[in-house]
Amino acid sequence: SDVRRSGVEKTETTCGYCAVGCRFEVHAKDDDFLAVQPTDPDHAPVNDFSTCVKGKFGYEFVDQETRLQTPLVKEDGEFREATWEEALSRVASEFAGIRDDHGPDALATFASSKGTNEEAYLVQKFARQVLGSKNIDNCARLCHSSTVAALKQTVGFGAMSNRINEDIGETDCYLITGSNTTESHPVLATRIKQNVRDGADLFVFDPRKVEIAEHATQYSRTRPGYDVAWINGMIRHIIDEGLHDEAFVEERTKNFEDLREKVEPFTPEEVERLTDVPPEELTRAAETIANADTCVFGWAMGMTQHSHGTQNVLALANLALVTGHVGKPGAGFSPFRGQNNVQGGGGDMGTLPNNLPGYQDVTDPEVLDRFAEVWGERPPGEVGLRVPEAFSEALAGNVHGMYVVGENPALSEPDLSHAREALEDLDFLVVQDIFMTETAEYADVVLPAATFAEKNGTFTNTERRVQLVGKAMDAPGEALPDWVIVQELANRLGFDWDYDSPADVMDEINDLVPIYGGISHDRLEAVGDGLQWPCRDADDPGTPFLYEEEFNFEDGLARFVPADMGEPGELPSEEYPLTLTSGRVLYHWHTGTLTRRVEGLMHHVGESFVEIHPETAERLGIEDGEPVLVESKRGEITVDARVTDRPGVGVVFIPMHFAAGAVNTLTRESFDAVSGIPEYKVASVRARPAGPD
Ligand code: SF4
User: Fold this and answer.
1) Ligand 1 mean position to 458 CA, how many Å?
2) What number does CATH give the domain 72-140+340-454+476-501?
3) Mean pLDDT score of the chain
4) Where does the 4Fe-4S Mo/W bis-MGD-type domain lie (predicted)?
5) Is the predicted pLDDT of residue 4 greater than 70, yes or no?
6) Where are the alpha helices (DSSP H) in 159-277?
7) Is pTM beyond 0.90 here?
8) Is residue 20 in contact with ligand 1, taking CB distance under 6 Å?
């Protein structure tokens, strides 16, 4: 055939960037990544033929020269190449030494949400079984941990309840808040915009006039950090006007009276005082949402990354429940998840300090017994350290060794100078990644890993859909898939893991994780368009949307958990009068490890910047395009000004993707009490033209 003659291999797979989960074919020749092309639309349930700019043009990083191709060990402060034999022996002996000297909890593992489910499962098993440590966490701590905490309390599953196309794409009404949907979840945003063009209402509440707001029925500018006020205000107005869904509240929920009482102080006037949202905007949105047949509630980091992020999500959940927009087609909760596999690898697979795979409680003796039966060892039955706690414990001298798989805390942690000090203080740091990241620079041993294009496995997208990932080429040099590396390490530490393939690992997951009980690679191959969990056995077709009959509690009822209004951890002061908020741009991804290596994307946005409202810029004497010095109590950065009315007066926005002008130099270690998420979305800063001093 043509294919054979040209030597081009075509492999169907799932996008490695965001959790929308677009599917396509990778075309490769002689281990060169040539192109991304559409695949059979029946195998691409979310995107059909389309992809966004990252999915289509963002894969230059895969076959770059600068990929890590051999293990590296540090000697006298310098890295040198090493064999796998040497590197793995060194890691095994150092980890064993720390465990013997200081106990297993002096070790902490930081898992990735970019690897496959099978890999995440093995990483948490490595931490718990092989290291015997309770300290396992992942980057979801920094993104949707407050969503998971809130939804588990109110409806039972810490996940999106609905589908991208059939529900989000078809609803009558949207409330989108704290989500820059167009730039962070592009293909999903296109569905929303199409549906709005066809007549759906769209309400956007956000401190920044993000692109999706241009399509809104109404855009309301809010003050960063006061979201509970306007959401409670909407609930109050809805109850006050008798617009709540009485039958739903009566039959499917409990604690309504507590909710009614809690929202009472949030009159439209009080909401305006707290948030600047005018009463007529609040009541119009509340009435339209309550009267709509179906409504979707979409949110992301703008809700979650606050010192009261869990309260924000509780408030949203209450609003969805009180209006009865849950558990039916076209409605539901849509926390838009970030990384390609954060739902699976960052949640379902138990890379969490309090949950074993499948959200099973790590302190439940029956659950521990079940794992002991399959593993041979009982996992530690205590809640471990969360990522930010592991860093403070490293600074306090209690955590001595860390295993970081595919994460970049040297750029992603709040208050970077602190986080970097912690990395420096560790006795032994192992970083497993595909590039020499900012974090890998601090490592004692660096292990070269494979990208999504170089391995098999599964990713779970934001709508709980488990989809296959296909190997299109070999990893460069001696780089290996994470699942192979972790297995090698486990065996060097005295275990005898013998997984032949990721499919083999999935069989063990089947056994231990009830919501994945019916998901196997063979079955995914046969169905073509993935399976949505819960999928409990081989005959279970999966669950397109949650809570149709009952909520995930023994009594089947949802709980109203009234949300408390809290102030941000840092308020503007005379010295630092501006409010900083951070976020993403379309062309980049997280700490930029991948996208800063793609010329075509760097051509669009090649460096960091600060958005400043024209009024603020004028007052501070800042011109569009000129370098600006931005300072907080933690540090300072210099970035170019973009004068625009996207942020409000007195608010500045800086993207999160760059090492030069890293925004987390400025952010603060202030955490949500329930979930431990850092407050990336509010910090107090000042700004002036950078010019000569
Ligand atoms: Fe990939 Fe997300 Fe873009 Fe789809 S929308 S192509 S999953 S980055």
Assistant:
1) 16
2) 3.40.50.740
3) 93
4) 8-66
5) no
6) 181-184, 186-197, 227-240, 246-252, 256-263, 268-275
7) yes
8) yes
